[in-house]
User: Which sequence fits this backbone?
Protein backbone atom coordinates (compact mmCIF):
# COMPACT_ATOMS: atom_id res chain seq x y z
CA UNK A 1 0.00 0.00 0.00
CA UNK A 2 1.40 3.38 -1.03
CA UNK A 3 1.64 6.57 0.93
CA UNK A 4 0.91 10.15 0.02
CA UNK A 5 -1.94 12.14 -1.45
CA UNK A 6 -2.50 12.84 -5.13
CA UNK A 7 -4.89 15.44 -6.49
CA UNK A 8 -6.07 14.94 -10.06
CA UNK A 9 -7.48 18.06 -11.70
CA UNK A 10 -10.17 17.12 -14.23
CA UNK A 11 -12.33 14.01 -14.05
CA UNK A 12 -12.60 13.38 -17.78
CA UNK A 13 -11.11 10.30 -19.40
CA UNK A 14 -7.46 11.11 -18.73
CA UNK A 15 -8.11 12.18 -15.15
CA UNK A 16 -10.15 9.06 -14.42
CA UNK A 17 -7.43 6.86 -15.91
CA UNK A 18 -4.70 8.73 -14.01
CA UNK A 19 -6.67 8.15 -10.79
CA UNK A 20 -6.96 4.49 -11.79
CA UNK A 21 -3.20 4.27 -12.36
CA UNK A 22 -2.55 5.72 -8.89
CA UNK A 23 -4.66 3.06 -7.13
CA UNK A 24 -2.56 1.02 -4.73
CA UNK A 25 0.34 3.48 -5.04
CA UNK A 26 -0.92 6.33 -2.85
CA UNK A 27 -3.06 6.49 0.24
CA UNK A 28 -5.64 8.90 -1.16
CA UNK A 29 -6.60 10.35 -4.51
CA UNK A 30 -8.81 13.42 -4.79
CA UNK A 31 -10.38 13.84 -8.21
CA UNK A 32 -11.48 17.44 -8.78
CA UNK A 33 -14.13 17.83 -11.49
CA UNK A 34 -15.77 21.08 -12.53
CA UNK A 35 -18.97 19.40 -13.73
CA UNK A 36 -21.48 17.25 -11.93
CA UNK A 37 -21.56 13.79 -13.53
CA UNK A 38 -24.92 12.88 -15.06
CA UNK A 39 -26.71 9.87 -13.58
CA UNK A 40 -26.79 8.09 -16.95
CA UNK A 41 -24.28 8.47 -19.78
CA UNK A 42 -24.99 11.91 -21.24
CA UNK A 43 -23.20 14.85 -22.79
CA UNK A 44 -21.70 17.29 -20.29
CA UNK A 45 -20.35 20.80 -20.77
CA UNK A 46 -16.85 20.09 -19.46
CA UNK A 47 -16.18 17.81 -22.45
CA UNK A 48 -17.49 19.97 -25.31
CA UNK A 49 -16.01 17.65 -27.93
CA UNK A 50 -18.16 14.87 -26.47
CA UNK A 51 -20.90 15.28 -29.08
CA UNK A 52 -18.49 14.34 -31.86
CA UNK A 53 -17.60 10.94 -33.18
CA UNK A 54 -14.99 9.29 -30.96
CA UNK A 55 -13.35 6.08 -32.12
CA UNK A 56 -10.97 4.39 -29.71
CA UNK A 57 -7.90 3.00 -31.49
CA UNK A 58 -6.45 -0.44 -30.84
CA UNK A 59 -3.24 0.88 -29.25
CA UNK A 60 -5.36 2.61 -26.62
CA UNK A 61 -7.53 -0.44 -26.21
CA UNK A 62 -4.51 -2.61 -25.47
CA UNK A 63 -3.27 -0.10 -22.89
CA UNK A 64 -6.74 0.04 -21.32
CA UNK A 65 -6.87 -3.76 -21.12
CA UNK A 66 -3.49 -3.82 -19.40
CA UNK A 67 -4.70 -1.28 -16.86
CA UNK A 68 -8.15 -2.83 -16.39
CA UNK A 69 -8.50 -6.29 -17.94
CA UNK A 70 -11.90 -6.93 -19.50
CA UNK A 71 -12.83 -3.26 -19.88
CA UNK A 72 -13.09 -3.61 -23.68
CA UNK A 73 -15.72 -6.32 -23.19
CA UNK A 74 -17.52 -4.15 -20.63
CA UNK A 75 -17.74 -1.36 -23.18
CA UNK A 76 -19.22 -3.75 -25.72
CA UNK A 77 -21.67 -5.13 -23.16
CA UNK A 78 -22.78 -1.53 -22.57
CA UNK A 79 -23.49 -1.08 -26.29
CA UNK A 80 -20.17 -0.08 -27.89
CA UNK A 81 -19.32 -1.55 -31.29
CA UNK A 82 -16.21 -3.62 -31.87
CA UNK A 83 -14.60 -2.96 -35.25
CA UNK A 84 -11.78 -4.84 -36.92
CA UNK A 85 -10.11 -2.74 -39.60
CA UNK A 86 -9.53 -2.94 -42.50
CA UNK A 87 -12.46 -5.38 -42.81
CA UNK A 88 -14.93 -3.19 -40.92
CA UNK A 89 -13.62 0.26 -41.88
CA UNK A 90 -13.72 1.56 -45.45
CA UNK A 91 -11.09 4.28 -45.72
CA UNK A 92 -10.44 6.70 -48.54
CA UNK A 93 -7.17 8.62 -48.35
CA UNK A 94 -5.42 10.91 -50.82
CA UNK A 95 -4.59 7.89 -52.98
CA UNK A 96 -7.94 6.16 -53.19
CA UNK A 97 -9.82 3.53 -51.21
CA UNK A 98 -8.09 0.97 -49.05
CA UNK A 99 -8.58 -2.72 -49.69
CA UNK A 100 -10.99 -4.37 -47.28
CA UNK A 101 -10.02 -7.74 -45.80
CA UNK A 102 -9.75 -9.54 -42.49
CA UNK A 103 -6.35 -8.79 -41.03
CA UNK A 104 -6.90 -9.78 -37.40
CA UNK A 105 -4.40 -7.28 -35.99
CA UNK A 106 -6.53 -4.44 -34.64
CA UNK A 107 -9.71 -3.91 -32.69
CA UNK A 108 -11.20 -0.46 -32.33
CA UNK A 109 -14.21 0.66 -30.31
CA UNK A 110 -17.01 2.98 -31.43
CA UNK A 111 -19.63 4.47 -29.10
CA UNK A 112 -20.61 7.87 -27.79
CA UNK A 113 -18.08 9.63 -25.67
CA UNK A 114 -20.62 9.76 -22.85
CA UNK A 115 -20.93 5.97 -22.75
CA UNK A 116 -17.19 5.48 -22.99
CA UNK A 117 -16.36 7.84 -20.12
CA UNK A 118 -19.17 6.57 -17.88
CA UNK A 119 -18.10 2.93 -18.37
CA UNK A 120 -14.45 3.67 -17.61
CA UNK A 121 -15.40 5.80 -14.58
CA UNK A 122 -17.62 3.04 -13.15
CA UNK A 123 -14.82 0.50 -13.51
CA UNK A 124 -12.17 2.75 -11.92
CA UNK A 125 -14.43 3.54 -8.97
CA UNK A 126 -15.17 -0.18 -8.55
CA UNK A 127 -11.42 -0.94 -8.58
CA UNK A 128 -10.86 1.83 -6.02
CA UNK A 129 -13.09 -0.02 -3.55
CA UNK A 130 -10.74 -3.02 -3.68
CA UNK A 131 -7.43 -1.16 -3.92
CA UNK A 132 -6.82 0.19 -0.44
CA UNK A 133 -6.53 3.70 -1.92
CA UNK A 134 -9.25 6.07 -0.78
CA UNK A 135 -10.69 7.95 -3.75
CA UNK A 136 -12.65 11.11 -3.14
CA UNK A 137 -14.46 12.70 -6.08
CA UNK A 138 -15.16 16.42 -5.71
CA UNK A 139 -17.80 17.20 -8.31
CA UNK A 140 -18.89 20.72 -9.22
CA UNK A 141 -15.51 21.89 -7.98
CA UNK A 142 -13.09 23.89 -10.06
CA UNK A 143 -9.32 24.08 -9.68
CA UNK A 144 -8.30 27.74 -9.79
CA UNK A 145 -4.58 27.65 -9.06
CA UNK A 146 -1.62 25.72 -7.69
CA UNK A 147 0.06 25.87 -4.28
CA UNK A 148 3.80 25.83 -3.71
CA UNK A 149 6.68 27.58 -5.45
CA UNK A 150 8.77 27.50 -8.61
CA UNK A 151 10.57 24.28 -7.58
CA UNK A 152 7.76 22.33 -6.02
CA UNK A 153 4.00 22.18 -6.39
CA UNK A 154 2.39 21.30 -3.07
CA UNK A 155 -1.32 21.31 -3.86
CA UNK A 156 -4.26 22.92 -5.59
CA UNK A 157 -6.63 25.80 -4.83
CA UNK A 158 -10.22 24.88 -5.59
CA UNK A 159 -13.56 26.69 -5.63
CA UNK A 160 -17.00 25.13 -5.27
CA UNK A 161 -19.33 25.95 -8.14
CA UNK A 162 -22.44 26.13 -5.98
CA UNK A 163 -23.94 29.36 -4.67
CA UNK A 164 -21.40 29.83 -1.85
CA UNK A 165 -18.41 29.55 -4.24
CA UNK A 166 -16.28 28.65 -1.24
CA UNK A 167 -12.55 28.36 -1.86
CA UNK A 168 -10.15 25.97 -0.14
CA UNK A 169 -6.70 24.49 -0.44
CA UNK A 170 -5.97 20.82 -1.12
CA UNK A 171 -2.38 19.94 -0.14
CA UNK A 172 -0.87 17.14 -2.25
CA UNK A 173 2.33 15.21 -2.84
CA UNK A 174 1.46 14.98 -6.52
CA UNK A 175 -0.85 17.16 -8.63
CA UNK A 176 -1.90 15.68 -11.98
CA UNK A 177 -3.30 18.17 -14.47
CA UNK A 178 -5.86 16.33 -16.58
CA UNK A 179 -8.05 19.35 -17.23
CA UNK A 180 -8.02 18.90 -21.00
CA UNK A 181 -7.35 21.21 -23.92
CA UNK A 182 -8.38 24.31 -21.95
CA UNK A 183 -5.81 23.65 -19.18
CA UNK A 184 -4.75 26.80 -17.36
CA UNK A 185 -1.67 25.16 -15.83
CA UNK A 186 0.85 27.27 -17.81
CA UNK A 187 -0.65 30.39 -16.19
CA UNK A 188 -0.85 28.75 -12.76
CA UNK A 189 2.81 27.69 -12.97
CA UNK A 190 3.79 31.22 -14.02
CA UNK A 191 1.98 32.52 -10.92
CA UNK A 192 4.34 30.33 -8.86
CA UNK A 193 7.36 31.74 -10.71
CA UNK A 194 7.96 28.54 -12.71
CA UNK A 195 8.67 28.81 -16.45
CA UNK A 196 5.76 28.21 -18.83
CA UNK A 197 6.37 25.16 -21.05
CA UNK A 198 7.60 25.68 -24.62
CA UNK A 199 4.70 25.16 -27.02
CA UNK A 200 4.74 23.64 -30.49
CA UNK A 201 1.70 24.20 -32.70
CA UNK A 202 0.75 22.80 -36.08
CA UNK A 203 -2.73 23.85 -37.10
CA UNK A 204 -4.34 22.52 -40.26
CA UNK A 205 -7.32 24.79 -39.55
CA UNK A 206 -9.77 21.88 -39.52
CA UNK A 207 -13.41 22.59 -38.71
CA UNK A 208 -15.73 19.84 -37.52
CA UNK A 209 -19.45 19.18 -37.58
CA UNK A 210 -21.30 16.15 -36.18
CA UNK A 211 -24.87 14.95 -36.39
CA UNK A 212 -26.51 11.77 -35.10
CA UNK A 213 -28.69 9.63 -37.39
CA UNK A 214 -30.75 6.46 -37.12
CA UNK A 215 -30.45 4.27 -40.22
CA UNK A 216 -33.39 2.06 -41.16
CA UNK A 217 -30.92 -0.45 -42.61
CA UNK A 218 -27.45 0.08 -41.15
CA UNK A 219 -24.34 -0.53 -43.27
CA UNK A 220 -22.08 -3.36 -42.15
CA UNK A 221 -19.08 -1.09 -42.42
CA UNK A 222 -17.73 2.21 -41.10
CA UNK A 223 -16.76 4.81 -43.72
CA UNK A 224 -13.90 7.27 -43.41
CA UNK A 225 -13.17 9.79 -46.16
CA UNK A 226 -10.06 11.74 -45.29
CA UNK A 227 -9.51 15.35 -46.41
CA UNK A 228 -6.85 15.44 -49.11
CA UNK A 229 -5.13 18.23 -51.02
CA UNK A 230 -7.49 18.05 -54.05
CA UNK A 231 -10.62 17.80 -51.83
CA UNK A 232 -9.82 19.21 -48.38
CA UNK A 233 -13.12 17.94 -46.97
CA UNK A 234 -13.81 14.66 -45.23
CA UNK A 235 -16.41 12.56 -43.45
CA UNK A 236 -16.61 9.68 -41.00
CA UNK A 237 -19.66 7.50 -40.41
CA UNK A 238 -19.63 5.11 -37.49
CA UNK A 239 -22.11 3.29 -35.23
CA UNK A 240 -22.74 4.13 -31.60
CA UNK A 241 -24.96 2.46 -29.01
CA UNK A 242 -28.73 2.30 -29.29
CA UNK A 243 -28.99 1.81 -33.07
CA UNK A 244 -27.67 5.30 -33.88
CA UNK A 245 -24.75 6.37 -36.04
CA UNK A 246 -22.65 9.51 -35.93
CA UNK A 247 -21.70 11.46 -39.02
CA UNK A 248 -18.71 13.74 -38.55
CA UNK A 249 -17.76 16.13 -41.33
CA UNK A 250 -14.47 17.96 -41.50
CA UNK A 251 -12.79 20.50 -43.74
CA UNK A 252 -9.66 22.61 -43.66
CA UNK A 253 -9.90 26.41 -43.49
CA UNK A 254 -12.10 27.86 -46.18
CA UNK A 255 -13.80 24.44 -46.54
CA UNK A 256 -15.35 24.11 -43.09
CA UNK A 257 -18.49 22.01 -42.91
CA UNK A 258 -21.82 23.69 -42.15
CA UNK A 259 -23.23 23.73 -38.65
CA UNK A 260 -26.84 23.92 -39.89
CA UNK A 261 -28.37 20.45 -40.11
CA UNK A 262 -30.22 21.45 -43.29
CA UNK A 263 -26.85 21.86 -45.06
CA UNK A 264 -25.22 18.64 -43.89
CA UNK A 265 -26.38 16.45 -46.79
CA UNK A 266 -25.24 19.06 -49.32
CA UNK A 267 -21.72 18.94 -47.85
CA UNK A 268 -21.74 15.13 -48.04
CA UNK A 269 -22.85 15.32 -51.68
CA UNK A 270 -19.91 17.64 -52.41
CA UNK A 271 -17.52 14.85 -51.40
CA UNK A 272 -18.46 12.98 -54.56
CA UNK A 273 -19.00 9.67 -52.78
CA UNK A 274 -22.47 8.45 -53.77
CA UNK A 275 -22.34 5.34 -51.55
CA UNK A 276 -22.30 7.47 -48.40
CA UNK A 277 -24.57 10.18 -49.74
CA UNK A 278 -27.30 7.77 -50.89
CA UNK A 279 -27.16 5.83 -47.64
CA UNK A 280 -27.49 9.02 -45.57
CA UNK A 281 -30.54 10.11 -47.53
CA UNK A 282 -32.35 7.07 -46.12
CA UNK A 283 -31.35 7.79 -42.48
CA UNK A 284 -33.40 9.75 -39.99
CA UNK A 285 -31.56 12.66 -38.28
CA UNK A 286 -31.95 12.38 -34.49
CA UNK A 287 -29.89 15.36 -33.32
CA UNK A 288 -28.98 18.84 -34.48
CA UNK A 289 -25.59 19.37 -36.13
CA UNK A 290 -22.86 20.56 -33.76
CA UNK A 291 -19.67 22.36 -34.80
CA UNK A 292 -16.16 22.38 -33.32
CA UNK A 293 -13.28 24.56 -34.47
CA UNK A 294 -10.27 24.34 -32.13
CA UNK A 295 -8.55 21.32 -33.65
CA UNK A 296 -4.85 22.23 -33.73
CA UNK A 297 -2.00 19.92 -32.80
CA UNK A 298 -0.49 21.60 -29.74
CA UNK A 299 2.24 20.19 -27.56
CA UNK A 300 3.43 21.71 -24.31
CA UNK A 301 6.94 20.51 -23.57
CA UNK A 302 6.60 19.85 -19.86
CA UNK A 303 8.96 16.94 -20.56
CA UNK A 304 11.93 19.24 -21.34
CA UNK A 305 14.70 19.28 -18.70
CA UNK A 306 13.45 21.45 -15.84
CA UNK A 307 10.05 21.58 -17.55
CA UNK A 308 7.98 20.74 -14.48
CA UNK A 309 8.44 21.52 -10.81
CA UNK A 310 8.57 18.55 -8.47
CA UNK A 311 5.09 17.35 -7.61
CA UNK A 312 3.39 18.37 -10.89
CA UNK A 313 2.46 16.24 -13.90
CA UNK A 314 0.36 17.17 -16.96
CA UNK A 315 -1.30 14.38 -18.95
CA UNK A 316 -3.24 13.89 -22.15
CA UNK A 317 -4.92 16.97 -23.70
CA UNK A 318 -3.59 19.21 -20.92
CA UNK A 319 -0.11 18.46 -22.30
CA UNK A 320 -0.78 17.58 -25.93
CA UNK A 321 -3.74 17.81 -28.28
CA UNK A 322 -4.02 16.28 -31.73
CA UNK A 323 -6.02 17.05 -34.81
CA UNK A 324 -9.10 14.93 -34.03
CA UNK A 325 -9.50 13.55 -37.54
CA UNK A 326 -6.85 10.96 -36.65
CA UNK A 327 -8.86 9.78 -33.61
CA UNK A 328 -5.90 9.54 -31.24
CA UNK A 329 -6.52 11.57 -28.07
CA UNK A 330 -8.41 8.96 -26.05
CA UNK A 331 -5.87 6.27 -26.95
CA UNK A 332 -3.12 8.62 -25.79
CA UNK A 333 -5.03 9.09 -22.52
CA UNK A 334 -4.98 5.30 -22.04
CA UNK A 335 -1.31 5.02 -23.05
CA UNK A 336 -0.48 7.87 -20.63
CA UNK A 337 -2.38 6.13 -17.83
CA UNK A 338 -0.35 3.00 -18.47
CA UNK A 339 2.92 4.99 -18.57
CA UNK A 340 2.01 6.54 -15.23
CA UNK A 341 1.20 3.14 -13.70
CA UNK A 342 4.56 1.74 -14.89
CA UNK A 343 6.43 4.71 -13.41
CA UNK A 344 4.66 4.17 -10.10
CA UNK A 345 5.48 0.44 -10.25
CA UNK A 346 9.15 1.48 -10.41
CA UNK A 347 9.16 2.79 -6.82
CA UNK A 348 6.06 4.89 -6.19
CA UNK A 349 6.14 8.61 -5.51
CA UNK A 350 9.78 9.48 -4.96
CA UNK A 351 12.16 12.42 -5.47
CA UNK A 352 12.31 13.14 -9.20
CA UNK A 353 9.08 11.23 -9.85
CA UNK A 354 7.26 14.06 -11.63
CA UNK A 355 10.04 14.64 -14.19
CA UNK A 356 10.39 10.90 -14.87
CA UNK A 357 6.62 10.45 -15.20
CA UNK A 358 6.36 13.52 -17.45
CA UNK A 359 8.98 12.08 -19.81
CA UNK A 360 7.19 8.72 -19.85
CA UNK A 361 3.83 10.38 -20.56
CA UNK A 362 5.38 12.45 -23.36
CA UNK A 363 6.83 9.28 -24.91
CA UNK A 364 3.36 7.71 -24.74
CA UNK A 365 2.13 10.49 -27.05
CA UNK A 366 5.12 10.57 -29.42
CA UNK A 367 3.72 8.32 -32.13
CA UNK A 368 0.42 10.19 -32.22
CA UNK A 369 2.23 13.52 -32.42
CA UNK A 370 4.55 12.44 -35.22
CA UNK A 371 1.78 10.96 -37.34
CA UNK A 372 -0.68 13.83 -36.85
CA UNK A 373 1.87 16.56 -37.44
CA UNK A 374 3.37 14.75 -40.41
CA UNK A 375 -0.04 14.46 -42.05
CA UNK A 376 -1.07 18.06 -41.25
CA UNK A 377 2.02 19.88 -42.43
CA UNK A 378 0.79 20.33 -46.01
CA UNK A 379 -2.27 22.19 -44.70
CA UNK A 380 -0.60 24.38 -42.07
CA UNK A 381 0.38 27.94 -42.98
CA UNK A 382 3.59 29.52 -41.70
CA UNK A 383 1.66 31.45 -39.02
CA UNK A 384 -0.02 28.27 -37.81
CA UNK A 385 3.02 26.08 -37.49
CA UNK A 386 6.47 25.97 -36.01
CA UNK A 387 8.67 25.46 -39.15
CA UNK A 388 9.67 21.84 -39.90
CA UNK A 389 13.29 20.75 -39.63
CA UNK A 390 15.11 18.70 -42.32
CA UNK A 391 14.36 15.44 -40.49
CA UNK A 392 10.64 16.21 -40.47
CA UNK A 393 10.66 17.04 -44.21
CA UNK A 394 12.33 13.72 -45.03
CA UNK A 395 9.92 11.90 -42.76
CA UNK A 396 6.94 13.53 -44.53
CA UNK A 397 8.22 12.43 -47.95
CA UNK A 398 8.70 8.83 -46.79
CA UNK A 399 5.40 8.61 -44.92
CA UNK A 400 3.49 10.08 -47.88
CA UNK A 401 4.86 7.37 -50.15
CA UNK A 402 4.28 4.67 -47.56
CA UNK A 403 0.69 5.76 -46.90
CA UNK A 404 -0.07 5.54 -50.62
CA UNK A 405 1.25 1.97 -50.82
CA UNK A 406 -0.50 0.98 -47.57
CA UNK A 407 -3.90 1.24 -49.27
CA UNK A 408 -3.25 -1.87 -51.37
CA UNK A 409 -0.15 -3.63 -50.02
CA UNK A 410 -0.87 -5.89 -47.01
CA UNK A 411 2.74 -5.82 -45.74
CA UNK A 412 3.02 -2.03 -45.81
CA UNK A 413 -0.65 -1.67 -44.79
CA UNK A 414 -0.10 -3.79 -41.67
CA UNK A 415 2.82 -1.62 -40.58
CA UNK A 416 0.90 1.56 -41.38
CA UNK A 417 -2.09 0.46 -39.32
CA UNK A 418 0.12 -0.70 -36.44
CA UNK A 419 1.53 2.82 -36.20
CA UNK A 420 -1.55 4.90 -36.98
CA UNK A 421 -3.63 2.84 -34.53
CA UNK A 422 -0.88 3.57 -31.98
CA UNK A 423 -0.02 -0.09 -31.42
CA UNK A 424 3.61 0.21 -32.55
CA UNK A 425 6.27 2.94 -32.59
CA UNK A 426 7.09 4.76 -35.85
CA UNK A 427 10.27 2.64 -36.17
CA UNK A 428 7.92 -0.14 -37.35
CA UNK A 429 7.63 1.83 -40.61
CA UNK A 430 11.36 1.44 -41.16
CA UNK A 431 11.54 -2.35 -40.97
CA UNK A 432 13.46 -3.66 -44.02
CA UNK A 433 10.45 -5.26 -45.75
CA UNK A 434 8.36 -2.14 -45.36
CA UNK A 435 11.11 0.31 -46.31
CA UNK A 436 12.09 -1.63 -49.44
CA UNK A 437 8.50 -1.88 -50.67
CA UNK A 438 7.96 1.81 -49.94
CA UNK A 439 11.05 3.16 -51.63
CA UNK A 440 11.66 0.69 -54.47
CA UNK A 441 8.18 -0.19 -55.71
CA UNK A 442 6.39 2.40 -57.84
CA UNK A 443 4.18 4.88 -56.03
CA UNK A 444 0.88 3.08 -55.54
CA UNK A 445 -2.75 4.11 -55.99
CA UNK A 446 -5.66 2.86 -53.94
CA UNK A 447 -8.92 1.43 -55.32
CA UNK A 448 -11.07 3.74 -57.45
CA UNK A 449 -14.36 2.83 -55.69
CA UNK A 450 -15.20 1.76 -52.12
CA UNK A 451 -15.04 -2.05 -51.78
CA UNK A 452 -18.57 -2.43 -50.38
CA UNK A 453 -18.04 -6.18 -50.17
CA UNK A 454 -15.02 -7.41 -48.21
CA UNK A 455 -12.41 -9.72 -49.77
CA UNK A 456 -12.88 -13.31 -48.72
C1 LIG B 1 -13.98 17.22 -32.18
C2 LIG B 1 -13.11 16.17 -31.54
C3 LIG B 1 -13.21 14.85 -31.90
C4 LIG B 1 -12.37 13.90 -31.33
N1 LIG B 1 -12.42 12.59 -31.74
C5 LIG B 1 -11.60 11.68 -31.18
C6 LIG B 1 -11.63 10.32 -31.58
O1 LIG B 1 -12.34 9.90 -32.50
N2 LIG B 1 -10.83 9.43 -30.94
C7 LIG B 1 -9.99 9.83 -29.93
O2 LIG B 1 -9.27 8.99 -29.38
N3 LIG B 1 -9.92 11.11 -29.54
C8 LIG B 1 -10.69 12.04 -30.13
N4 LIG B 1 -10.64 13.33 -29.72
C9 LIG B 1 -9.72 13.71 -28.63
C10 LIG B 1 -10.35 13.46 -27.27
O3 LIG B 1 -11.59 14.11 -27.17
C11 LIG B 1 -9.41 13.96 -26.18
O4 LIG B 1 -8.09 13.59 -26.46
C12 LIG B 1 -9.77 13.42 -24.81
O5 LIG B 1 -11.04 13.86 -24.43
C13 LIG B 1 -8.76 13.86 -23.77
O6 LIG B 1 -9.23 13.55 -22.51
P1 LIG B 1 -8.91 14.50 -21.28
O7 LIG B 1 -9.44 13.81 -20.09
O8 LIG B 1 -7.48 14.92 -21.34
O9 LIG B 1 -9.75 15.83 -21.56
P2 LIG B 1 -11.32 16.03 -21.51
O10 LIG B 1 -12.00 14.82 -21.98
O11 LIG B 1 -11.57 17.31 -22.23
O12 LIG B 1 -11.65 16.21 -19.97
C14 LIG B 1 -11.20 17.33 -19.23
C15 LIG B 1 -11.98 17.33 -17.91
O13 LIG B 1 -11.43 18.31 -17.05
C16 LIG B 1 -12.50 19.06 -16.45
N5 LIG B 1 -11.93 20.37 -16.10
C17 LIG B 1 -11.45 21.30 -16.96
N6 LIG B 1 -10.95 22.35 -16.26
C18 LIG B 1 -11.11 22.06 -14.94
C19 LIG B 1 -10.79 22.74 -13.74
N7 LIG B 1 -10.19 23.94 -13.76
N8 LIG B 1 -11.11 22.14 -12.57
C20 LIG B 1 -11.73 20.94 -12.53
N9 LIG B 1 -12.06 20.25 -13.66
C21 LIG B 1 -11.74 20.80 -14.84
C22 LIG B 1 -13.58 19.10 -17.52
O14 LIG B 1 -14.85 19.37 -16.99
C23 LIG B 1 -13.44 17.67 -18.08
O15 LIG B 1 -14.21 16.75 -17.35
C24 LIG B 1 -11.44 14.30 -30.32
C25 LIG B 1 -11.34 15.64 -29.95
C26 LIG B 1 -12.15 16.58 -30.57
C27 LIG B 1 -11.97 18.03 -30.19
Assistant:
Amino acid sequence: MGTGHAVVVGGGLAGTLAAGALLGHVETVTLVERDRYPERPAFRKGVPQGRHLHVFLSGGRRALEELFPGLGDELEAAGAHRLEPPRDVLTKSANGWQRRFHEGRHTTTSCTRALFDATVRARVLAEAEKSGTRVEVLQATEAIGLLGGADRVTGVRVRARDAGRAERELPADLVVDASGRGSRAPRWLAELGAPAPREEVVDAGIGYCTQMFRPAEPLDVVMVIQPRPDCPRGAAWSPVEGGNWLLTLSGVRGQHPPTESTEVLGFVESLGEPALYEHLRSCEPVSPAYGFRDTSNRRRHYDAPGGVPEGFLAVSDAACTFNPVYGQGMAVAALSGLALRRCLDDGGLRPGFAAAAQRAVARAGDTAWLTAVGADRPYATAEDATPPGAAERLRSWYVGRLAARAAIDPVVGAAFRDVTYLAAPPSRLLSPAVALRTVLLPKARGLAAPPLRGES
